Amino acid sequence: MRLVLLKSRSLLRTLRIILPLCLILCVCERLHAQLPFYTDDTAVTEPGKLHLEFFDEDDALQLQYPNHRQNTANVKLNYGLPHNLEIDVDSPYLSIYRVAGNQSSNGIGDTNLGLKAAFRKETSTSRVPALAASFYVEFPTGDVSQQLGSGLEDYWLNLIAQKSLSPKTRLTANLGYLFAGNTSTGALGTTTQGHVLPGGLSLQHDFRPTLTLGAEVFGAYTPNEKLGKAQLQAMVGGQYLIRKGLSFCFGILGGRYVASPRIGGQVGFAMDLPDVFHSP
Hints:
Strand content: over 45%
């Protein structure tokens, strides 16, 4: 991948600008695509291009005493490969706030490295949806003693399907299998090995060429009681296209059970490189 990057001087100039920004965000900071939603879509980054996502989410926790609030600032980089492949890396910076008399904690959480493949594009002549899959490995880079990481290497397979209901409306479904760990981060994470079945369903509509709004239901189930109760949460949010290659993302979410926030809010941006610097 480095050899490919070295072939483009313009891309190198872009990297010199954006990589220091990512490092700052990480040092000062879940599986996210299609911001602000947790449900991933079937799209992959174009070969030789970078896609950058950053979001900041503030959540009120439930059933997590003495923890009462968590802030997650996450940076994700996607790089497009040939043959409809994409490599992803993301890492959060977590701040966990606790009730008076208990010290809060903050620092880098666990880091994800993944590979995504798009198998089929949707066509107007077929009822079969667009199909893709991704596989992620989460490395235990977070401090377990501060509840910033799980202390485990987690392995996650995610199957993705997307179908257009109209030219402006699309339905996206995810079904995954987590071989170890949990689907949560920080105070909502675990240190016990186990199997988890996560899934999500999102509906989005393009109200304007620059404005997309949608809703999502995301959940996870595990038969292992040591991993905590099942996760169930919902989100409403959207994207606003500021210019080609740059979007502002926003969402409000809430849920039940330990692995979901009682209520939370998210803001962020998505950027395509080098497109954002070439658009008028």
